[in-house]
Write a structure and sequence with these properties.
Bound molecules: heme C
Helix content: 40-55%
Number of domains: 2
Largest sheet: 2 strands, antiparallel
Number of strands: 2
Strand order of the largest sheet: 1-2
Radius of gyration: 22 Å
Strand content: under 5%
Length: 334
């Protein structure tokens, strides 16, 4: 009697503590930074621990690609704020892509995805790399087949979405994981929250970044340093990628690209849609005297002729947007 009571107590505490762990994790995953806006979770894909864990497992799983060689994390590496270090990432059979892989930090807040804004939601976006010949060259149906043959995937899918592995589950679970990739603890954030101070250089850079003269913060605006609009920042006369025009077919959108977030920009090089600028100093150099006249050049873009010190100040400020805790957070890594 006494022994079975103790066993019961033991089992109960394991169950309860187990649940407590899950609840704590859910709190961590759902904790939105107070200085950021609220995230809109789709009604059919609210976060649960089980969905998130399944999404995380899928994110790092190379069996999502035709020859099981490439995972999402091959091009979106946690240590580089979920971007990579190549101008164009390599897909299956080392096929070279056509655009630079962007960071996934705070991607939950993007109103549309991809550099031309052609994809309406994170759930839909999954289909792009999976099906793209130059990336994973596969399909969600074939991934589902592979998952069906793995009893742990089967069980996790049933627990998370109450259905066996299918394209719905794959896209929902991955998007659920991606929505939790929040970067909100850079030096810039701590300064905003009054917990730290900029150095003199960083402060001068901040002033310059938000000034009338540079206009940087008209496009790279708000908490995520982007207004998500499509602009041309004068990289060249002839672009091999027409950007936003691929979606709208309209000449006024030719060679315009979504304004990228600058969070963790120190780690996300090479820069621009084609990775054509290697270093942050060179990006600032571009805005200083590298602007090429283009018929769709955005208002606000012109050579700024910055002094040596002004360039240094701007770079120092941009580096305050680095969030090392985000890139090393073992919550996100395997
Ligand atoms: C072979 C490299 C590669 C792989 C694999 C890959 N991506 Fe990407 N990802 C890219 C590139 C390049 C872009 C930019 C595409 C564009 O703008 O047209 C991108 C864009 C994105 C975006 C849009 C970000 C934004 O700012 O709009 C998201 C989200 C994303 N990828 C998630 C994923 C997920 C999830 C997976 C796995 C299912 C994945 N990616 C696999 C290279 C890759
Ligand atoms: C009119 C809007 C606009 C203004 C003003 C602007 N930018 Fe940009 N910026 C963009 C666009 C669009 C891109 C991406 C272009 C591309 O993908 O080819 C970009 C790219 C960048 C990048 C590269 C980010 C990456 O991950 O590739 C940095 C860094 C940057 N801008 C910093 C600045 C600074 C500093 C200023 C002020 C001196 C500034 N920008 C002014 C629109 C703007």
């Amino acid at each position: 009697m006494r022994i079975s009571f103790l066993i019961l107590l033991g089992v109960l505490s394991v169950v309860l503590l187990g649940n407590k762990g899950q609840e704590d994790l859910l709190d961590v995953l759902k904790a939105e930074p107070k200085h950021f806006p609220q995230i809109d979770y789709p009604t059919d894909n609210d976060i649960t621990v089980e969905r998130w864990k399944l999404g995380k497992r899928l994110f790092y799983d190379p069996t999502l690609s035709r020859d099981s060689s490439i995972s999402c994390a091959s091009c979106h590496l946690p240590g580089f704020a979920f971007s990579d270090t190549l101008a164009f990432s390599l897909g299956v059979e080392k096929r070279v892509g056509v655009r630079n892989a962007p960071s996934l930090a705070n991607v939950a807040y993007h109103p549309y995805l991809s550099r031309d804004g052609g994809v309406p939601s994170l759930e839909m976006q999954i289909l792009v790399p999976v099906q793209e010949h130059l990336e994973m060259d596969f399909s969600t149906l074939e991934i589902a087949d592979r998952m069906m043959k793995d009893s742990s995937y089967y069980n996790e899918s049933m627990v998370a979405y109450n259905r066996y592995p299918d394209p719905y589950v794959i896209t929902r679970a991955l998007a659920c994981f991606e929505r939790t990739l929040i970067s909100s603890n850079s030096k810039y954030d701590r300064v905003q929250l009054g917990k730290e101070e900029f150095t003199v250089e960083e402060e001068r850079g901040h002033q310059l970044f938000t000034s009338e003269r540079t206009q940087c913060s008209t496009c790279h605006s708000g908490f995520n340093f982007t207004n998500y609009k499509f602009e041309n920042n004068g990289l060249r006369i002839h672009y091999s990628d027409s950007g936003r025009m691929r979606v709208t077919k309209s000449e006024i959108d030719r060679d315009k690209f979504k304004v990228p977030s600058l969070r963790n920009v120190e780690l996300t090089g090479p820069y621009m849609h084609d990775g054509s600028i290697k270093r942050l100093e060179e990006v600032v150099g571009h805005y200083s005297e590298g602007i090429i006249e283009h018929k769709n050049l955005s208002t606000g873009i012109k050579n700024l002729y910055l002094t040596e010190n002004e360039r240094k100040d701007l770079v120092s400020f941009l580096k305050t947007l680095t969030d090392p805790g985000f890139c090393k957070n073992n919550l996100y890594t395997q």
